[in-house]
């Protein structure tokens, strides 16, 4: 017969798989906690010991999403985890520095070796817009992609 995991052991098991934000881990552990006080004590201990870090969670989420999504989508995802505003501002600055390059690389991967038509431009625009890139940035990235991929 398996022994029932303590709340602390369960939390450490979750955190060994990936980074979690405090609210996210709270929701995962709540069904197993005997009381709110016990849950808050465990979460406080995890933060104090450095096992639970919103900074690491934000960096992990940004790293996981940045090669496929734009700033708007990533920042929206971060806001869903109730992170502090300073951390959000830091993530926004980091993402803004590389947003154009990320959009251009996505176009290179998705639309390589395709002939340039108005339909292709519309598909490119929708593709980037759906992934959270801003309109002006999408237009710039598409213009650059066309200039680089036009037959000579």
Describe this protein's structure.
The structure is a single chain. This protein is mainly alpha-helical. The chain has a domain at 1-52: Arc Repressor Mutant, subunit A. 72% of the residues lie in helices and 0% in strands. It is built from eight helices and no strands. α5 packs antiparallel against α6 (85-111) and α7 (118-130) crosses α8. It is elongated. It starts with 6 loop residues before the first helix and ends with a helix.
Quick recap:
The protein has 152 residues and is mainly alpha-helical. It is 72% helix and 0% strand.
- How far is it from the N-terminal to the C-terminal residue, by CA? 72 Å
* Rounded average pLDDT: 90
Mass-distribution shape: elongated
The CATH architecture name of the domain at 1-52 reads: Orthogonal Bundle
Tell me roughly what share of residues is in helical segments: over 70%
- Broad CATH class of the domain at 1-52: Mainly Alpha
Assembly type of the chains comes to single chain
Domain RecX first three-helical: 8-46
Family: Belongs to the RecX family.
Pfam family, one: RecX_HTH2
InterPro entries: RecX_HTH_1st, RecX_HTH_2nd, RecX_HTH_3rd, Regulatory_RecX, WH-like_DNA-bd_sf
What labels describe this entry?
8 helices; cytoplasm; Regulatory protein RecX; RecX_HTH_3rd; mainly alpha; WH-like_DNA-bd_sf; Arc Repressor Mutant, subunit A; elongated; 152 residues; single chain
């Amino acid at each position: 017969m398996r022994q029932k995991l303590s709340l602390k052991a369960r939390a450490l098991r979750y955190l060994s798989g990936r980074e979690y934000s405090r609210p996210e881990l709270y929701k995962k552990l709540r069904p197993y906690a005997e009381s709110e006080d016990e849950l808050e004590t465990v979460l406080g201990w995890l933060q104090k010991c450095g096992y639970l870090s919103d900074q690491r969670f934000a960096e992990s989420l940004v790293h996981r999403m940045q090669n496929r999504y734009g700033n708007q989508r990533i920042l929206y995802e971060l806001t869903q985890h109730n992170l502090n505003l300073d951390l959000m501002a830091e993530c926004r600055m980091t993402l803004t520095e590389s947003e154009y390059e990320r959009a251009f690389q996505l176009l290179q991967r998705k639309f390589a070796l395709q002939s340039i038509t108005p339909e292709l431009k519309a598909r490119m625009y929708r593709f980037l817009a759906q992934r959270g890139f801003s309109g002006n940035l999408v237009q710039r990235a598409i213009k650059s992609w066309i200039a680089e991929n036009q037959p000579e």
